[in-house]
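Ticket #4471: complex job returned nothing on first submit. Input attached below:
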Amino acid sequence: MGKIDVGKKILSANETYALKNSQFLTARGKRCFNIISSPGSGKTTILVRTITDLSAKVRIGVIEGDVQTDIDAERIRATNAPAIQINTEGACHLSAAQVNTALDKLPLDALDMVLIENVGNLVCPSAFELGEDGKIVVLSVAEGDDKPVKYPAIFARSKALLVNKMDLLAGSHVEFDLERVKVDARRLNKGIEIFPVSAKTGEGMQNWYDWLTNQVVSRR
Amino acid sequence: MGKIDVGKKILSANETYALKNSQFLTARGKRCFNIISSPGSGKTTILVRTITDLSAKVRIGVIEGDVQTDIDAERIRATNAPAIQINTEGACHLSAAQVNTALDKLPLDALDMVLIENVGNLVCPSAFELGEDGKIVVLSVAEGDDKPVKYPAIFARSKALLVNKMDLLAGSHVEFDLERVKVDARRLNKGIEIFPVSAKTGEGMQNWYDWLTNQVVSRR
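Support reply: We reran it on our side without changes. The output follows.
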């Protein structure tokens, strides 16, 4: 076959919206992270605690993705942070077009950062850019320490990994080798930041807050 | 618009393979269940314990679906049960065509039942029939009691729900309202069988074994 010169990558519909979102947020100096995990790893609890504890330093707005219900957005709004709920009606990940619509509804001028809580799913959301500055993966210790090797894509593509529910580990209620997770995640992604935390007890959260706050400061 | 008479449903490629698998298994008198859950809810641990404890009564073969690795099939093979690993290479659910190929590799004459462990994902696998007699959904108490309302499709479509890691609940290490889960799951699916279990301690497993054994007996 002859050589084909492709001068410009043709963007998919999702990539086109992701690029729009990224340009829109960058032009306004707002940081944006896309939080991805299995169902029930504690994404919403992490968000609620982070928003509350950082309220004096970083003004956070939330885009909530769920298959059904607005339970999670209601939990965020109880902190007084603005939250826009997207119901995917069965779809397994958020799309950049959905995020584009939600961004228009957020009071961006009053915010430093947008955190997107994706649909609970460790597989599909990793393949769809939303226009974020980075992905953040959450893994609960109850899910087991084999997840980076079994679901490598999201660990390879994330800026940070929060290992949540460390309180369960402290009492030896679950078997989980944190060192194995660190080694396996860094084998996939040399630069990944790893924060063992408990959003329930607050353990380890300060290191995560420092990193997140620094993301805003570094853009100012 | 005029009336259109559709005499026969046109099957998708997946539905065609699902029908083939179903006919193939039924003709041989073999039961088949499709086990679906989030990553880390304990599907493989449930399988290992079930195969071991039922070995004198029900001969079980396993089809293991994973995005990557054959860790789970190796765990099954350690029980001496046959296990065929399918790696989806990034895809978020098993397809009926993949199961069709795996069925050819299992020693079906020596088995009563095939259990399929789907990719860890509470969303996508619920939409793809594999030719099974029924779906079984597993929910770990660590994932939270709001999962039936947030991910209704799989709870609406399953014959049985295993609520796993009850040992964590017994010690009050996690907050989880079992009654809420039962009410919400039965609102979606009046006939769903619900088994609170701990695959770790063995608590509640006998009820699940009785139900599963009865599935084989009812076909003989």
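The mean pLDDT of chain B is 94. Closing as resolved unless it happens again.
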